[in-house]
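Protein modeling request. Please complete all fields; requests missing the sequence field cannot be processed.
Requester role: graduate student
Desired output: 3D structure, token encoding
Chains: 1
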Amino acid sequence: MVRAAVLPAVGAALEITEIDLPDPGPGQVRVRLAAAGVCHSDLSLSNGTMRVPVPAVLGHEGAGTVVAVGEGVEHTRPGADVVLNWAPSCGSCHACTLGEVWLCANALNGAADVYARRTSDGTDLHPGLNVAAFAEETVVPANCVLPAPEGVPLTDAALLGCAVLTGYGAVHHSAKVRPGETVAVYGVGGVGLAALQAARIAGASRIVAVDVSPAKEELARGAGATDYVVASDNTAREIRALTDKQGVDVAVECVGRAVTIRTAWESTRRGGRTTVVGIGGKDQQVTFNALEIFHWGRTLAGCVYGDCVPERDLPVIAEHVRAGRLDLGALVTERIGLEGIPAAFENMLAGKGGRALVVF
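Delivered output (360 residues):
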């Protein structure tokens, strides 16, 4: 038996309870978690913005140590430290054959599986976004584990599984920020803080952080922001004023709200680029008119998992960490136990803090 945070139904409160995990079957790995990040996507799953089979154990950003492997697993072994990969590519769908593995059509198929049972009544449980990291231990398909990089504390390495890959990839792969360009990052949460650091690493000349909370300015500047703007109806105008009335070259939206996406687009220069990382609901409608699309020549692009290939990008990011260019600890504003996840969700809704990290 292990303790886990179970979502009994969409919109219900998480329940901290004991679950029974089976031994790993063929092609599976059992992992003892060291830490798991609390991501806004987990909140979106719990409140129904994104669909998930329930009851489920959420949590998709984690790292830990392999305790057992099933038949046929050869790329890892008991005792190995690993980072969980919640979106493993199948290698054979149309997106994968194009090399766009972050858009794999089959990446989340495992979320519909039954992977464990509640100890008290035998209720079947699903593994959230494949990996069920809000638990002391989990059992996952072997392609959901990647070697943890050497020289990176395992608890910090949990952040590599989503926040850092997403924020870093949004800047380097989706927006393709070039040295000397100006960047605005909307939303100073875990992903936004990673994006700010990534923009600094990319050599951006000016990095503007935007958030509704004045209290996040210190966090943002610590991550690399040269300027801080408290979100308002005048945000785009303020950003243009900071950039010789031109607007930034790149905006990275990490919120997922229609008004923020529209503002991010408006804050870029003519020909600028906006990358949308935030996950919004179907009710969030963004409107443009045909003339402004022509006139401004801007681009607006979605971004899934930072357009990353985890096997390729984790070693690169790890080298930035070891060299001191990327500070994983700077993303974390609180370290909690499983019982602290509901409060972490409330802080997200209130726009407070960066990443909450569940430490086991």
